[in-house]
Amino acid sequence: LDAMCNRLESERFTIPELRIGSMVFHDVSGHVDDEAVTYRKTPAGVGYIGAELIQSVKLVIDYGQNVMTLIPGESPSAREQGCYGTEVPFVAGLEIQPTTNVSTDLGDLVFVWDTGAPMSIVRRSTAENQKLMDDGLHVDNQQFKLAGEDFGPQQLRLLDFVEPVEVDGFVGHDFFANYVVCVDFMAQRFLVRSNR
Question: From residue 180, how far is each of 42, 65, 96, 136, 196 by CA, in Å?
Fold first, then answer.
């Protein structure tokens, strides 16, 4: 299901060997990235690296330096390779991951993190219920707290998305543009710091 609840069917495949920099992955499963006619995606390349691929590594995403660092397993040099910052735990028990709790001007919400989202998004009904719509398209949050640390202000685009039902919004490109984010699936957490 896409964000608008369109049911999509696409072919699955396995890549015998995938190399990213010096890392080598074997038997990587994937699927054709299909889209509904009524809900087109913003093209960002010819493919996407999914969460399944990075389950066994730490991934440091640094848009400011145009660098992505893959750190093997439990490497003792993870901090030296950029995996440090405010520890933000994943929300336990949700089927969709990675998600975190976020304290905003709209209240305490659950956001899924998505580098493929062109901007950070909040469900329109959440903003309407709080009467905090700014221009009918966006909400300017003064606070955007992750694990008690404020990463605001953060503008959120209003969208009537349907899926995933467990979340209130998406942390998207605009957030990643301002912060270095280390994704650590093994420890079920993010490590976040300013890229300035």
Answer: 23, 9, 22, 30, 9
